[in-house]
Amino acid sequence: MTREITKQALEAAIIRNCSPMLAGLKPACLFTFPGVFLAQGEHVDKQELARSNRAKLLEELEPCAKALAPSGISLRVLTWRSCGALVYVYRPAMLRRWIADPHAARPFDSLAVYDAPGPQEQAACQALGAALA
Question: According to its UniProt record, what is one Pfam family this protein matches (predicted)?
Answer without folding.
Answer: DUF3793
